[in-house]
Specification:
Layout lengths: L4 H10 L7 E4 L15 E6 L12 E5 L3 H9 L11 E5 L3 E12 L4 E7 L6 H7 L5 E5 L9 H8 L6 H14 L2 E12 L2 E4 L3 E4 L17 H8 L3 E4 L4 E5 L2 H13 L4 E6 L6 H12 L6 E8 L4 H11 L4 E8 L2 H10 L3 E2 L3 H13 L1
Parallel strand pairs: 12-13, 12-14, 14-15, 15-16
Antiparallel strand pairs: 1-4, 2-3, 2-4, 5-6, 5-8, 6-7, 8-9, 8-10, 11-13
Helix pairs in contact: 8-9, 9-10
This protein binds guanosine-5'-diphosphate (GDP) and manganese (II) ion (MN).
């Protein structure tokens, strides 16, 4: 789950990273009683969890006297379609230089990896693309270490000031403490008053949300949330075929087969083991509820799951889209008979249901 800038900054601050003085406001007028704490100029920052806010007009550097107006503007100014619920107002830092630093997990080496660039700021993507391998340095290190070893830190920093080193180590502390997948500071700035994280990004591993005391994953769509509440594994994709399976293996191979026949899944849902009538009904309705879904493949293997229960669930769901089913195993005959009686299509093999669905989705 992505945290907002002000939330990430709070965590960074707690891990010893210097953060500009600032306040979080929920309405423009709230800002009035905080303005005394600021000197002449402030930075007014829209709190939406998308990158490139600066370029999209979500960061306003202004005189203190105009800050309330700037906040008023940002509260109704969508950035990549998102309206902020909060705005962060900070002292304007006297920036000398902007650096980029992030820590993530390198899936290939299975180690934490630091990315560092001597030219950070809003054009980092451009730097990464055109700057050559030296522009964005990558250094991995052992997850058994609690700090970045000195020789690696020198490699990361190059000619950048040494005082960035402790910030990077503290960023690693924050990264570990918050079970993060990504901790990023862009820009990490040097000023006459020292180093500061002028921006902050933190993505928490969804599997660690409970440990982190986060009860609801804000990044989920309403359907994804409903799936989570029902204990379904559910993922949304880009195509138009809905997929329901039981067990990760069967669900994944159904997806593979769709890909194999040049189809595209809109979503997939694993109902898990022993799903009864009610659960199957919920699963079918949930998958069908995504507007992109034109046709649904139900591929279920009856073990503890009983095919007749599955059939009843499909029928109960009573959805508009065409459901093509493949059932095999416990009470298969009863299930098939029920579906046939109610006019549902069944095919005997995975290949056949998938081919049929791909054909219908393309029509
Ligand atoms: P982003 O566009 O969403 O990454 O937003 P940032 O928080 O990184 O802000 C974008 C740019 O605004 C930064 O790269 C800075 O150049 C500038 N900026 C942000 N905060 C300050 C500040 O306190 N002082 C100054 N002078 N510039 C700032
Ligand atoms: Mn930034």
């Amino acid at each position: 789950m992505k945290l907002l800038e002000f939330e990430a900054k709070e965590i960074f601050r707690n891990n010893g990273i210097p953060i500009p003085e600032g306040v979080v406001i929920k309405s423009p007028d709230e800002l009035r009683r905080h303005l005394n704490g600021f000197t002449d100029e402030v930075v007014v920052k829209s709190q939406v969890d998308v990158g490139g806010r600066g370029k999209a007009g979500g960061i306003i550097v202004t005189q203190k006297a105009d800050a309330v107006e700037a906040a008023r503007h940002l509260f109704s100014f969508p950035i990549k379609g998102l309206i902020p619920k909060a705005i962060l107002v900070e002292e304007k830092l006297p920036i000398d230089h902007e650096y980029y630093v992030s820590i993530s997990i390198d899936r290939t080496t299975r180690q934490p990896m630091i990315l560092f660039a001597e030219t950070g700021g809003v054009d980092i993507e451009e730097t990464a693309r055109t700057g050559g391998p030296e522009a964005l340095r990558r250094v991995g290190f052992s997850p058994l270490l609690s700090e970045v070893p000195g020789f690696l830190m020198r490699q990361i920093l190059g000619t950048a000031p040494k005082e960035l080193g402790p910030v990077i180590n503290n960023l690693y502390k924050a990264f570990c403490a918050s079970d993060a997948l990504l901790a990023e500071i862009n820009p990490l700035v040097t000023t006459s008053r020292g180093v500061f994280a002028a921006d902050a990004k933190l993505i928490i591993d969804d599997n660690a949300l409970i440990r982190q005391g986060i009860t609801a994953n804000r990044d989920l769509t309403p359907r994804e949330r409903e799936a989570e509440e029902n204990g379904f594994s559910y993922v949304e994709l880009e195509g138009s075929i809905g997929v329901i399976g039981n067990g990760a293996g069967l669900t994944m191979s159904t997806l593979d087969l769709i890909q194999h026949y040049d189809g595209k899944a809109a979503n997939f849902l694993d109902v898990g083991g022993g799903a009864g009538r009610e659960r199957v009904m919920k699963a079918v309705r949930l998958v069908a509820g995504m507007p992109d879904v034109k046709v649904i493949v139900v591929n279920l293997l009856g073990g503890i799951t009983r095919c007749d229960e599955v059939a009843k669930g499909i029928i109960d769901a009573g959805i508009d889209q065409h459901v093509i089913t493949r059932l095999a195993g416990t009470n298969e005959e009863e299930g098939k008979a029920l579906l046939a009686k109610n006019g549902y299509q069944m095919l005997d093999t995975m290949e056949d249901v998938v081919k049929q669905a791909v054909k219908e989705a393309a029509a």
